[in-house]
Amino acid sequence: MKKDKDTKFIFSWCYFLGTILVTLKALNMTAVPWLWVLSPFWIPWALVLVLGFLALIFAGLLASFEWIGDLRRKHKLKKAMKKAGAL
To answer: pTM above the 0.85 mark?
Structure first.
């Protein structure tokens, strides 16, 4: 439950900061480029996307290592059965 509140607070804080920066930029009260004025809106989502992509890569690597391990175990079992004369 606390985790949900923290996440909502972070996103709310980013939107609040973004609104202030956009207002200041629209009133020509700051010389910050629009990319950085709008960054409180896109940086949290970019982090979510990047971390999600990295998690998918990590999960894929784990799955491929497990698959390779299964192949090795099957090969060792087949080899042991052949040596025992079961095959």
So the answer is: no
Q: Of all helices (H) and strands (E), which one includes residue 7? A: helix 2-26
Cα-to-chain-centroid distance, residue 52: 2
C-alpha–C-alpha distance, residues 13 and 5, integer Å = 12
Q: Is the pLDDT of residue 5 over 70?
A: no
Q: Give the torsion sign (CA, 13, 15, 21, 23).
A: negative
Q: Are 40 and 70 in contact (CB under 8 A)?
A: no
pLDDT band at 67 (very low <50, low <70, confident <90, very high): confident
The DSSP string of 9-78 is HHHHHHHHHHHHHHHHHHTT-----HHHHSHHHHHHHHHHHHHHHHHHHHHHHHHHHHHHHHHHHHHHHH
HSE-up of 74 (CA within 13 Å, CB side)? 6
